[in-house]
Amino acid sequence: MRGRVAGIIVLMLLVALAAPTWGQRGGKTMIVSFKDDISTLDPAIGYDWQNWSIIKSISDGLMDYEPASTTLAPHLAESFSVSADGKTYTFKLRRGVRFHNGRELVAGDVKYTLERVLNPKTQSPGAGFFSGIKGAKAFSEGKAAEITGVRVVDKSTVSITLDSANAAFLHTMALNFSHVVPKEEVARLGADFGHKPVGTGAFMVKEWVLGQRLVLVRNPNYFLKGRPYLDQVVFQVGVEPNVAFLKLQRGEVDILGDGIPPADFVKVMGDSKLNKLVAVGDQLQTGYVTINTQVEPFNDVRVRRALNMAIDKSRIVRIINNRAVPANQILPPLMPGYDKDYKGYAFDREQAKKLLAEAGYPGGFRTTLYANNTDPNPRIAQAIQQDLAAIGVKVELKTQAQSTVIEAGGQKSQAPLIWSGGMAWIADYPDANNFYWPILSCAALGPGTWNWAWYCNRDVEKMVTDADALVQSGQAAARAARFRQIYRKIMDDAPWIPIFHERRYTMHSARLGGVAGIFVDPIHIPVHYDEVQVLGK
Amino acid sequence: MSGYILRRLTQSVFILVGVTLITFVLLYALPADPARMIAGRSATVETVASIRAELGLDRSIAVQYGRFLSRLARGDLGRSYAQKVEVTELLASRLLATFWLMVGGIFFELLIGLPAGVLAAVRRRSALDRSVMLSSFLGVSAPQFVVGLLLLYALAYKWPVFPLGGYGTPAHLILPAVTLGIAGGGWYARMMRSSMLDVIHQDYVRTARAKGAGESRVVVRHALRNALLPVISMIGLDFGTFMGGVVVVESVFGWPGIGQLAWQAIQIVDIPVIMGVVMVSAVAILFGNLLADLVYPLLDPKIRYG
Question: Helix or strand or coil: residue B20?
């Protein structure tokens, strides 16, 4: 008996000794670590930062962006044209593109895909992006059997007619929700399609072990010759970021999908060997405090402007180890329409107090600030609390679970102030209207809105609608100028305090390379997997 | 005995229904809207309403609970709101890993705690007793996150004897199981010591010594069996607790257990998954307790169930 026990222990130790060789990647296989399990790869449904880029590697849309840029270009479409009134887009599809099951992509697949997204049974979070297509509303409500605005002209031509001109429409045809899927596979797999997705993308799903790993292999018949560079991408899930950091240093992981652990950030950036492995880039992101314009005293614009002048944004950026740049406006620097000349509200406590006094609050007042309870958001909320206390505004902090804060923001008179950290806005696409319609527009208002400022300026709404009608490519500069005006006007109304624009830091192994910026791609977040190359072993 | 088991199983059904009802009500009382979490940031109010209707979340809580119970009776726990995968499939994918972590954790708890507790009891008030009690106190107090990361750093990174987290081989199990064993072993050591001290002063133990039995025979053959009774209760509880998931250890070691699944589901208010995890946890606790109760008569023949 004792001998048997000893034998088992020896065997286990021998097995353990083999441990260092486990998990080593080699060849053209890349390993990416994530803490959370991947939710779904159904392009109609997947809508989190983790699966967004993976879905882009498995399926394709009519439009996409050039790698590491915000430049829109035809993708599954070979070309497109826009009617003179800006309402009808005609796409000519590339010939010979095949789904992973071997069938050729045809125009009817595009129509099927859009109707699937707009079908309430699909529960697609992206349905709203396509509600401007003619006939979409009637189809969604079950009053029509098809979306009349989507027309199959011939096998490789599809036209889409909108209710009204929308200059951002081509961006919506690059969103994952529009990625084309084969009807027969959706019918065959049903609700399991999200775990066995079939698309036209550079990679195909080889294996998905829930809770452990997702393995993609290259699509040998991908329509972009020479892509992807990698043979295989393995997503290891359930890996704590601190442990992933150790694994990367041991060569067991290539990319930290969740980023550099905050506790190691300063050490990494200060280490001359480690910081070479970190790609840095801007994001289409703004972190902000929303000021509920429906709640006293914030219904007075002078009070809102005073708050804007009271916050020391540089101090808040230091709290997150300078992983952001202070924001003086709503749009991030990468966004078309960003106003380089706009200075915003100066940090001026005396002026802030003057404004409060003018508004009838010389002694300040009491209010509440909601924030997400995951670090560093409580610390940032405390800094905001301290800054507002300096002008006499006494803030009670409510740091709560994300879902609770979101719920509070969606109720009209519940949350006077909300720090958006952990829920901050990252643009769905690189167009200035994406920072307006979902989170600042009158149209977005209603219970459950993400317009937590409950802001509604009808004049601004009209300006945005007019700007969205400038659809021709020659009108892009004029449209950007209009949006600079629009966002200056919104900043005058001060429904937000823009705090910072976060930068992205992606740490990767030395053996990976590719076009500059693909590790911090602003659209294929976090990494453009199709463009990653292995430079050496 | 079979009558006893049948009674316990019948009681368990009622307890499980009660657990599901309380959990359901608590989840729906939360100030969070699963439909809005699924719909995401850019969804229109209409899209959120549509998703809410598709998921049946616009019905009354009584109707929703009724539907849950009728599906449960068919063995259907529904689909995850976020992953759209059957909850039973999600749980099944994690159950084996959770089971092995439970087995490993209890193994190391007993390996560390039982001998330490027995030694501390038989060498009461000695330096050994004091060091065992101090060690058990440290084991119980040290946060599992810290212990786990230290073990990983030392034994998987600095001197790579074991893998750096993950799952798949016995070697992957050692460090997470030892982490659980260090904390739990402290409790078992204290319980074992206390229980042994009660037993070794009993008359029958004194009689065994008087008859000339050696100390190790007295401890192992006469005292230990009765001293183990409270420990069996603890093992039963641990069975249930571990099978419900130990999210900290699972997170540190990347162990694909039910705890991680539960944590992710709670973040996004994925109600079907939360209900599924609660069911698994409740069943495991009930089963663990029943198992413990069935072991008692094996150790102490005086214990009988009518």
Answer: helix
Q: Across the interface, do B48 and A45 touch by the CB < 8 Å criterion? A: no
Buried b (16+ CB within 10 A) or exposed e, B226-259: bbbbebbbbbbebbbbbbbbbbbbbbbbbbbbbb
- pTM, whole model, 2 decimals? 0.89
**B252 and A407: CB-CB below 8 Å?**
no
Among A238, A240, A403, the residue with its CB nearest the CB of B32 is A403
pLDDT digits (tens, 9 = 90+) for B35-78: 887 777 777 777 888 888 888 888 888 898 999 889 988 989 99
pLDDT of residue A1: 58
Confidence tier at A6 by pLDDT (50, 70, 90):
low
Per-residue model confidence (pLDDT) at position B91: 94
Does pLDDT of A18 surpass 50? no
To the nearest whole angstrom, how far is the Cα of A156 from the nearest Cα of chain B?
A: 31
CA R_g for chain B:
24
Flag whether residue A449 sits within 8 Å of chain B, measured between CB atoms: yes
Cross-chain CB nearest to A448 (options B33, B55, B171): B33
Chain A positions in Cβ-Cβ contact with residue B31 (cut-off 8 Å):
403-404, 407-408
Q: Provide long-range contacts, Cβ within 8 A and 24+ apart, for A408-414.
A: A408/A370, A408/B31, A409/A290, A409/A370, A409/A449, A409/A450, A409/A452, A410/A447, A410/A448, A410/A449, A410/A450, A410/A452, A410/B33, A410/B36, A411/A447, A412/A294, A412/A447, A412/A454, A413/A292, A413/A294, A413/A295
**Model pLDDT for residues A65-100, shown as the tens digit of each residue:** 999 999 999 999 999 999 999 999 999 999 999 999
B82 φ, ψ (degrees, to nearest 5):
-85, -45
Residue-wise pLDDT tens digits, B252-274? 999 999 999 999 898 888 989 99
In the A/B pair of chains, how many CB contacts fall below 8 A? 182
Say if CB A488 and CB A432 are below 8 A apart.
no
What is the distance of C-alpha B240 from the center of its chain? Answer: 4
Query: For A217, phi and psi rounded to 5 degrees?
Result: -120, 155
Range from A99-103, A111-115, B12-16 carrying the lowest mean pLDDT? B12-16
Nearest-by-CA chain B residue for A429: B42
> pLDDT value at position A485?
96
Strands A88-93, A157-161: pairing is antiparallel
In three-state secondary structure terms, B95 is helix
Q: How far apart are CA B300 and CA B297, in angstroms?
A: 5
User: What is the C-alpha end-to-end distance of chain A, expressed in Å?
Assistant: 47
Predicted ipTM?
A: 0.86
Q: Which of A19, A242, A449 sits opposite B161 (nearest CB)?
A: A19
- 203-242 in chain A: CB under 8 A from chain B: 209-212, 236-240, 242
